[in-house]
């Protein structure tokens, strides 16, 4: 039979592991740090507004003058030569 101490210890370990699993697999919210792909990517419809080398902050759209890959990611809806236009 499991003692109360063993039960509490087992429950504590289970909770810690569950929280770590959720943290690793959770998408990032508005304003949180992100990477462009993988477990630290932004929750849809947010996108990762890059700051440097694949890391950035989750935003609704990428502002003018910032790097982009697709026009739909830009606030202006125009990505030209790898940068969002201002209008």
TrEMBL record:
UniProt keyword list: Disulfide bond, Knottin, Secreted, Signal
Gene Ontology CC annotation, any one: extracellular region
The organism's place on the tree of life at top rank: Eukaryota
Localization: Secreted
Transmembrane segments: none
Domain UPF0506, residue spans: 27-85
InterPro entries the UniProt entry points to: UPF0506
Signal peptide extent: 1-26
Protein name: UPF0506 domain-containing protein
């Amino acid at each position: 039979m499991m003692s109360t101490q063993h039960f509490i210890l087992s429950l504590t370990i289970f909770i810690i592991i569950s929280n770590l699993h959720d943290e690793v697999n959770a998408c990032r919210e508005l304003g949180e740090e992100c990477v462009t792909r993988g477990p630290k990517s932004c929750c849809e419809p947010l996108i990762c507004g890059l700051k440097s080398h694949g890391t950035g902050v989750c935003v609704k759209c990428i502002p003018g003058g910032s790097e982009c890959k697709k026009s739909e990611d830009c606030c202006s809806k125009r990505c030209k030569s790898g940068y969002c236009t201002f209008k």
